[in-house]
Structures are given as structure tokens and as C-alpha cells.
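User: Please fill in residues for this 334-position structure.
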């Protein structure tokens, strides 16, 4: 069952939740709860497929399937403690079976993508967040291999430019959300503005704290506009990060990936984990929950993500448009 920690009522990875920071404890959990109750109920029922909210078409808002085995999905309103989630978990998958399983999931994604593109009504936004070396690039490369590039846009967000910093913090992300028929992939995302920005004190605390609710509103806007949002947090251990950094130093072909700044960031490991815990807890909504992917084992991580994307596309049930009428009688002139 994907929502592994959902039943104990304490939170995802709750066993060691004492590690959360003090300030976060005093804030209300999950800002979406601050919306009028009508909205919370509306969104829940919309996603569960049980509601009759007037402006929601069931075709635009599919019942989201559970994530693949091994993934921990954060229930809205739960606290999160990543330290209690095992990054080595494989969801019961054996390494020997992983390649065939990944191939099968990629074939499913490819088939659904063709229909999504042809249908030209909804879109899928896949968000990846992780600490440095967490595997965002590798996951995107492995999972999306074979999809039609015309129907897919991958955006990697770096330090904002001067032009981007002159705008509201969501501007550069909203410009790149996928249009109808497209799969959009965010390699880093609007969450950086409550992660690196928080850890490095790039804006005052009151500014980043306000952003959780703004992000939930942004994702709600996208959802009601026909975009299904899948958010994956790739969860690795500190030891695994060390090994990956060492591998980049040891292999000349990987030198280009080694960024000395990653060593500076590594010193802030705990601060990042706290920031991740809060972002995952406060921005897991019924319409866009966070999925924590155990990501120490790349082969298992790829399968978990691919399967979740394929299952979500299947639930969206994209269809080729109805053929034009009267095609039977048409003759193509010589
Ligand atoms: P990489 O993904 O390794 O190419 O690095 C991109 C860098 O951009 C990372 O160090 C991120 O923390 C940084 N970055 C991304 N978005 C933001 C943001 N909104 N504000 C500040 N830094 C950011
Ligand atoms: Mg980097």
C-alpha cells in the first residue's frame, strides 16, 4: 500500500518526529487546511471521485491511483520525518527483474502519452525535488526514454536570473507549466523557493513561510485548469550522497558533474532535511500529494517513478479524439 504511514495518524516517518524544528511546530500543519472547509471537502471529493463540485469534470480530475509499492505518499495534514523513511527500500522489487519492469512501464507511458497529446485536453506536470546528487537527472533520463519529445518539456531550474528575481517567485515556473496535451517535467521547481531559499536565508522567514500556502493555491489553479500534478521527492541517505560525490571525483567522465558548491551544501544537510520535511508536510494536498521515493537504489527508484507515472496516466484515461465525420467518402486527389 503506497500510503504506508497514513494509518498511524502521526505522520509520514513519524517514529522519530522529534527532529522537526521548533518554529515549524508552532505553525499550522498543511496550509491547504486554511482554505474554507468547502474547498477542502471539495478537493477531497473531487480527487476521490465522490464529489459533485459543479465546475469539476470527472474527466479533468481523475481519481488518482496509489503510488507504486515502496513509495511513501504524504497524507494531507501529516507531519513528515524523512529520517524515519528507509532510502534503501525497493518496494519488493528484485534487481534482476528491474530492467524488464522499467521497459514495461516505459511502454505504458509512451502509449498513454500519444493519446494525451492527440486528445489535447489535459496535461501532466511531474515535479522532481531532491538534495544534490539525489538522482533527478538520472530519473528523468531513464523514465522518459522513448517518449515523444514533441509531447514532453523538461525544465531545469537554476539560480534565478536578475529578470526572474524582478518578478513574483512563481513567475518563472508558471511560464513553463505544460499546455494541453503535454507532459511537463520540472527538474527542481517552485519548491526551491521554500528549500534553498530558506536554508540560505535568501529572503526573510515571513516571506518563505507565506509561500507554502501560495504554492498550494498555485497547484490548485493548475489542477482545476486540467493539469494533474505528480510530485516526487527522491530520498537518499547522507552516506549515499558521499558515495555519489566520490564517484564523480573518481571518474573523469563524471568530473563535469562535480560541483565544489555541493560540498558546501552538504554541510547544511540537516537544515535541508528540516526544510524538506516542512515542505512535504505543508504542501501535500488532496489534489497534489507528495510522494517520497526511496532513492538509494537507482534501479528501484526508476521503476517506482515510472510505474506511478504510468498508473496516473492510465487513470487520466486519455483518448484519441473522435474522427471527423464523413472520412469514408474522401478521396485524396492524384
Ligand atoms: P543544479 O541542479 O545542480 O544544476 O544546480 C542548480 C542550483 O540552482 C542549485 O544549487 C539550486 O539550489 C539553485 N536554485 C534553484 N532554484 C533556486 C532558487 N529559486 N533560488 C536560489 N537558488 C536556486
Ligand atoms: Mg548540482
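Assistant: Residues filled in for all 334 positions:
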Amino acid at each position: 500500500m503506497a500510503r504506508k504511514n497514513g494509518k498511524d495518524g502521526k505522520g509520514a516517518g513519524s517514529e522519530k518526529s522529534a527532529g522537526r524544528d521548533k518554529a515549524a511546530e508552532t505553525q499550522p500543519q498543511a496550509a491547504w487546511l486554511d482554505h474554507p472547509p468547502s474547498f477542502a471537502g471539495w478537493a477531497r471529493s473531487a480527487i476521490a471521485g465522490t464529489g459533485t463540485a459543479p465546475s469539476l469534470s470527472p474527466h479533468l480530475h481523475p481519481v488518482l491511483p496509489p503510488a507504486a509499492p515502496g513509495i511513501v505518499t504524504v497524507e494531507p495534514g501529516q507531519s513528515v520525518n524523512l529520517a524515519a523513511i528507509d532510502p534503501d527500500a525497493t518496494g519488493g522489487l528484485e534487481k534482476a527483474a528491474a530492467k524488464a519492469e522499467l521497459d514495461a512501464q516505459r511502454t505504458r507511458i509512451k502509449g498513454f502519452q500519444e493519446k494525451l497529446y492527440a486528445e489535447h485536453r489535459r496535461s501532466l506536470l511531474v515535479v522532481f525535488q531532491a538534495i544534490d546528487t539525489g538522482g533527478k537527472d538520472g530519473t528523468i533520463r531513464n523514465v522518459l526514454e522513448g517518449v515523444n519529445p514533441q509531447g514532453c518539456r523538461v525544465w531545469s531550474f537554476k539560480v534565478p536570473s536578475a529578470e526572474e528575481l524582478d518578478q513574483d517567485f512563481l513567475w518563472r515556473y508558471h511560464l513553463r507549466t505544460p499546455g494541453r496535451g503535454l507532459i511537463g517535467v520540472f527538474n527542481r521547481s517552485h519548491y526551491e523557493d521554500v528549500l534553498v531559499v530558506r536554508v540560505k536565508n535568501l529572503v526573510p522567514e515571513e516571506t518563505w513561510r507565506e509561500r507554502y500556502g501560495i504554492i498550494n493555491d498555485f497547484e490548485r489553479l493548475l489542477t482545476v485548469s486540467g493539469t494533474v500534478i505528480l510530485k516526487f521527492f527522491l530520498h537518499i541517505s547522507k552516506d549515499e550522497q558521499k558515495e555519489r560525490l566520490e564517484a564523480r571525483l573518481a571518474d573523469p567522465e563524471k568530473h563535469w558533474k562535480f560541483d565544489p558548491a555541493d560540498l558546501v551544501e552538504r554541510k547544511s544537510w540537516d537544515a535541508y532535511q528540516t526544510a524538506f520535511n516542512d515542505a512535504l508536510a505543508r504542501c501535500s494536498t488532496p489534489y497534489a500529494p507528495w510522494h517520497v521515493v526511496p532513492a538509494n537504489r537507482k534501479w528501484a527508484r526508476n521503476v517506482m517513478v515510472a510505474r506511478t507515472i504510468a498508473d496516473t496516466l492510465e487513470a487520466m484515461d486519455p483518448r484519441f479524439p473522435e474522427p471527423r465525420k464523413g472520412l469514408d467518402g474522401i478521396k485524396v486527389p492524384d
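For context: The beta strands are 11-12, 72-73, 79-80, 123-130, 152-156, 183-187, 227-235, 290-294.
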